[in-house]
Amino acid sequence: MLVDSSAIWACMSQTVPSAAWNWPSDATRAEHSTASALTYLNSGYAMCVGAASAKPRLDVVIRNAINEGLIPGPRYLANCQEIAVTGGGLVDGITAFADGPEEMRKQVRRNVAYGADLVKLSMSGEEITGNQHAEDNYFSDEEVLAVTTEAHRRGLRVCTHARSAESVKMSLRNNVDIICHASFIDEEGLDMLEAKKDKVFVAPGLNWLVATLNDASTFGYPPEAAEAAGYKRELEYAIAGLQEMRRRGIRVLPGGDYGFAWTPHGTYARDLQHFVELLGYTPMETLLAATKLGGEIMRMPDELGQIKPGFYADFILVDGDPLKDISVLQNRDKIVGIMKGGAFHKDPGDGTPRDASVPADQPVVVTA
User: Is the dihedral of CA 160, 237, 89, 104 positive or negative?
Assistant: First the structure.
C-alpha cells in the first residue's frame, strides 16, 4: 500500500485554492473529508499523514471513525489546524494563530487535548497568495523550539510548511520531524539535513508545483501568471535540491497538496511519476519511498510498508508492472485488488470497492 506524506482531506477539488476551504456547513466539511478518505483507499493508499484540518478536531474525528470501522479509509496520522504567527497564515480557515513561545505551547496542548498525532507550523509563504512568498520565514527559533519541546514531551510529531532556506534550517535546528516542501534548501541546509537523515522526513509535495505551472490555466491561473509569481523558479530549485537529497540518502516521500482544482483528489500517484521523471529515482526506489518509508513516517516501521512476516497485510494488486511503467498506478482500473488489514477493500474477484461501513481493522499479519 502507498503513502501520502502530507494529506489534506477537507480540501474541495473542484475549487481554486482561495475558495477550497469555504464550505457551507460543518456537515459538508465532514462529508467531504469522509469522501476523500474513501478516494485515498480506492486509489491504493492505506497510509496518510495529515497536513492540516479545516476545523480543530475534524481530522481526529475522521481518523477515529476509520479506526472504529464506521467508514472506510487509510490509516491516518491526524492533525489539527496549522499554526501560524499573526500575519503569517496562508488560509484563515485552516489556521490557528499564536505569537511567542508560550502561545505556541498552548496551541500544542490544544492538539494534545483534541487527540491529534501531529502539530503543523506554517513557517513560510506561498506565491499564489500574492503577498506571502516562498522564500519568507515568519517564525523565530524560540517559537519553533517551544513547539517541538512541548510536542515531543507529549508524544506528538511536528511538521512544518517550510519552503524557504531559512525556514528549513530553523526546522532542523529545532528538532522538527517532517519538513514539507524544502524547495529553496541551500547547501548548509542540505548538510544539516544529511546529519539528521535518520530522524527527519521530507514531504516535498512536488505535484503542486508541476500542476500549478501546467494545469491551472483552465481555472484562471495561466502558466504566464504562475511563472511570473515564481513557480517555475521554485520548481527548478526544488528539483535540484531533491535530486541532491536522493544522492545523500535523505528520506523523501511522495505526496502532498492534493485536493485543489488542478491537483484533484484521486490523482495522488502523479507524484510517483515525478520522482522517476524529474528527480531521477528508479521505479523501485520510488515504490520503496511510497511504501517502506511510509511505514516509517507512520511510526510503524515494523508493521507497515513491507510484505514480511509480522507485518499488516496491506497491499494492492496491479494489472501491470509499475517497475516498467510507474504511471500504471495512476489508473484505478488497473488496481484490481486492494487489501487493508487482511480484508479486501476491493475484491479482485469482482473488482468492486467497498463504499459502505466496514468491519473494524483487525490485526491480520503476514505469516511466514
Answer: positive
Residue 6: per-residue pLDDT: 93
CA–CA gap between residue 71 and residue 67 (Å, rounded): 8
Question: Other C-beta atoms within 10 Å of 284: how many?
Answer: 11
* Domain tally, the chain: 1
Contact 83, 42 (CB under 8 A): no
pLDDT mean across residues, the chain: 91
The sheet carrying 315-318 orders its strands as 315-318, 335-340, 343-346
Q: What is the pLDDT of residue 264?
A: 93
Q: What is the pLDDT of residues 197-224, one digit of tens each?
A: 999 999 999 999 999 999 999 999 999 9
Domain contains 342: no
301-360 pLDDT, tens digit each? 999 999 999 999 999 999 999 999 999 999 999 999 999 999 999 999 876 665 544 433
Q: Within a domain: residue 8?
A: yes
Answer yes or no: is pLDDT of 367 > 80.
no
Angle at alpha carbon of residue 274, lines to 269 and 275, rounded to 5°:
95
Domain range enclosing 15 = 2-297
* Three cell numbers written together for 219: 481555472
List the grid coordinates of 109.
Answer: 496542548
Q: Judge whether 323 lies within some domain.
A: no
The x, y and z cell numbers of residue 292, run together, are 517502506
Degrees to nearest 5, angle at CA 10 with 7 and 14: 100
| 333 in a structural domain | no
**CATH number of the domain that 140 lies in?**
3.20.20.140
Average pLDDT in the 76-89 region?
96
Q: Are strands 315-318 and 335-340 parallel, antiparallel or unpaired?
A: antiparallel
